[in-house]
């Protein structure tokens, strides 16, 4: 056995390479079950151009690809999509990304379109057996001069006639049929609210057409995930108590099923979320998060007792139940995400599919530590800290490691503890990695989310800065080698931190926002009024937008930045990055700009993921003056000299 050697942080040789990450990993999403006990899921495959494939696990435990190339099972409703397919008996219905049409696929036959060509998008598919139809969300982009119109529609599977079931609200989601097929529950919300701010739960009688609002009419309540129990009771999650807890409707009265300082839901960024489902004994199998960690439990709706399963997973999503078995996507800091089957009787688990076949020696893995740190106004914020770790190296004497601070997107999202080889890429090379759950993140209650109200660009930036300073004070990071990186909204926080603060010495923006005013005027419908709550009303409060936009304060910038941008991005258009690059270049500050012609908002292709990961590491190696252990493709860094 070789003795560990001493080497400078950043120059450690690691077996976790970008080639390994993109060639041996997939993204697991959206579990579905049919009435023949088959299990389905989506696989996002970077090595196939990032396309999503429906995989079916039959009763013989054979995993079969159903989606032939070039079909890409992905919705574009709200741009973020989700809820892209459903299954019944031996048939799947799915939305195809390139033409936005819904297709029907029986067994392994070729998919056949059931919606016409055009500018309509679909998501959140639900089978209506009684009417032989498909109920789903429709987003109509036919009139380019107007905002897209959203509605709930029913598509007759024989005639392919489309009937509108609900319209008039700005947004709809989660159409769910009662077991008898007579009633339809769904959620709606209107500008300027986002669904985690205020949404309504509706109940429509499909025979009489009567519709009533069941919950959410107070304008200060967020409703998530309506579902019907086998007995025909309507359940949903609400944050009326500050936390997304589970409620149900009985005798026209709403009652709480479990009251806990925990979140039983996730914000409605995408369709098809499933955090709970019903077992055959009447209990509810549910996932919930406390202090940034997810758990799986079994809830008795009558006694209100919650039993938590003893599982090794800290991230749990896409919970589905059939008979006495639960299925979910589970992961932990040291285990890649997997499709997991849990026997509710024996409480034993079985892994059906892993997102990665890579076997990494634990000696190269960093396990996150939950930290709570002081921030502005006497408050506390949270983060996950991954220390540098590589069994082949020991810490250099009197040297502190560089630190990469991660600002997650959203900004209404969260830092995940799921096994992430991209994080381990950094820590196994000698970087510390700090994933910050700044004020506004989910998982800590509505009040914590509301810290960001009208304070985007302030609270998130302060929390990222204070998190880094906290580790510096703990002698866990080199104050002269602090970097910050983020994508989308996290890219904005990154640029704001580099512009308005002097804590970080370098940064990386992935499809980030530099001009809030342009974002308010030039983004898609779903987020077109998002900034009303995060910043202020536009154009009435235009000055706030100007004051918080890094593009107007490039004179304050004094540190190097690298930008990564998809040229097909409709959420944050490329001009946001291009304006910053030009301004920084003119200041003679080191800057790099890497574009991808075939990517939108977020990178899905293997070659692009690899380029971005290695490119960011190479950039820091030149800025922080360390020698990487491997030869990396060079990046054109302007003004480096």
Please provide a written account of the structure:
The chain has 641 residues and is an alpha+beta fold. 14% of the residues lie in helices and 34% in strands. The chain is built from 10 helices and 38 strands. The longest helix has 18 residues, at 606-623. The chain starts with a strand and ends in an 18-residue tail after the last helix.
Large-scale geometry: globular
Q: Describe the sheet with the most strands.
A: 8 strands, mixed
CATH fold label of one domain: Rossmann fold
What distance lies between the first and last C-alpha atoms, to the nearest angstrom? 43 Å
* SS-derived structural category: alpha+beta
Q: What percent strand?
A: 25-35%
What is the architecture of one domain at the second tier of CATH? 3-Layer(aba) Sandwich
Strands ordered across the widest β-sheet: 30-31-34-33-35-36-37-38
DSSP helix fraction: 10-25%
Summed up, the helix count is: 10
Q: Say which CATH homologous superfamily of one domain is assigned.
A: Alpha/Beta hydrolase fold, catalytic domain
Radius of gyration: 24 Å
Question: Would you report the number of β strands?
Answer: 38
* Uncertain regions spanning at least 5 consecutive residues: none
The CATH C-level class name of one domain: Alpha Beta
Q: Give the mean pLDDT.
A: 94
List its traits.
641 residues, alpha+beta, Rossmann fold, eight-stranded mixed beta sheet, 10 helices
């Amino acid at each position: 056995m070789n003795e560990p050697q001493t080497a400078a942080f950043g120059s450690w040789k690691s077996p976790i390479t970008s080639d390994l990450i993109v060639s041996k990993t997939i993204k697991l999403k959206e579990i579905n079950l049919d009435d023949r006990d088959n299990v389905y899921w989506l696989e996002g495959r970077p090595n196939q151009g990032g396309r999503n494939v429906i995989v079916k696990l039959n009763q013989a435990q054979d995993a079969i690809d159903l989606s032939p190339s070039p079909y890409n099972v992905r919705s574009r409703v709200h741009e973020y999509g989700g809820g892209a397919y459903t299954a019944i008996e031996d048939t799947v219905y799915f939305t195809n990304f390139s033409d936005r049409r819904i297709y029907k696929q029986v067994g392994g036959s070729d998919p056949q379109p059931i919606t016409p060509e055009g500018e309509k998008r679909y998501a959140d598919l639900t089978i209506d057996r009684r009417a032989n139809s498909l109920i789903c969300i429709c987003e109509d982009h036919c009139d380019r001069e107007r905002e897209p119109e959203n509605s709930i529609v029913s598509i007759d599977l024989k005639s392919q006639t489309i009937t509108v079931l609900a319209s008039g609200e700005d947004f709809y989601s989660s159409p769910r049929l009662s077991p008898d097929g007579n009633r339809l529950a769904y959620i709606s919300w209107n500008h300027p609210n986002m669904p985690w701010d205020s949404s309504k739960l509706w109940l429509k009688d499909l025979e009489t057409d009567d519709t009533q609002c069941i919950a959410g009419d107070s304008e200060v309540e967020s409703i998530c995930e309506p579902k019907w129990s086998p007995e025909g009771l309507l359940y949903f999650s609400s944050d009326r108590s500050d936390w997304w807890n589970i409620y149900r409707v009985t005798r026209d009265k709403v009652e709480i099923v479990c009251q806990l300082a925990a979140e039983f839901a996730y914000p409605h960024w995408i369709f098809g979320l499933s955090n709970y489902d019903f077992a055959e004994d009447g209990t509810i199998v549910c996932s919930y998060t406390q202090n940034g960690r997810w758990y799986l439990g079994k809830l008795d709706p009558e006694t209100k007792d919650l039993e938590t399963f003893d599982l090794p997973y800290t991230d749990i999503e896409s919970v589905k139940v059939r008979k006495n078995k639960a299925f979910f996507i589970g992961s932990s800091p040291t285990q890649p995400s997997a499709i997991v089957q849990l026997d509710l009787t024996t409480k034993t688990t079985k892994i059906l599919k892993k997102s990665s076949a890579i076997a990494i020696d634990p000696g190269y893995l960093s396990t996150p530590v939950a930290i709570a740190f002081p921030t502005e106004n006497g408050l506390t914020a949270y983060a996950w800290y991954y220390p540098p770790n590589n069994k082949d190296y020991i810490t250099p004497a009197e040297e502190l490691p560089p630190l990469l601070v991660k600002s997650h997107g959203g900004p209404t999202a969260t830092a995940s503890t799921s096994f992430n080889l991209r994080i381990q890429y950094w820590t196994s090379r000698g970087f510390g990695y700090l994933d910050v759950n700044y004020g506004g993140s989910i998982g800590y209650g509505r009040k914590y989310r509301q810290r960001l109200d009208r304070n985007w660009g302030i609270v998130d930036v302060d929390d990222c800065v204070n998190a880094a300073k906290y580790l510096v004070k703990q002698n866990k990071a080199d104050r002269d080698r602090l970097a910050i990186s983020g994508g989308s909204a996290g890219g904005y926080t990154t640029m704001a931190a580099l512009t308005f603060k002097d804590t970080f010495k370098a940064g990386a923006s992935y499809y980030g926002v530099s001009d809030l005013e342009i974002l308010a005027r030039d983004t898609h419908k779903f987020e077109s009024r998002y900034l009303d709550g995060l910043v202020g009303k536009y154009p009435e409060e235009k000055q706030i937008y100007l004051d918080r936009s890094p593009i107007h304060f490039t004179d304050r910038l004094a540190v190097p930045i690298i930008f990564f941008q998809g040229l097909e991005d409709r959420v944050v258009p490329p001009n946001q990055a291009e304006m910053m690059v030009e301004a920084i270049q003119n200041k003679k500050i080191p800057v790099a700009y890497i574009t991808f012609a075939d990517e939108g908002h977020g990178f899905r292709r293997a070659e692009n993921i690899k380029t971005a990961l290695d490119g960011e590491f190479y950039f820091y190696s030149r800025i922080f003056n360390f020698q990487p252990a491997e030869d990396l493709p060079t990046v054109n860094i302007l003004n480096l000299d």
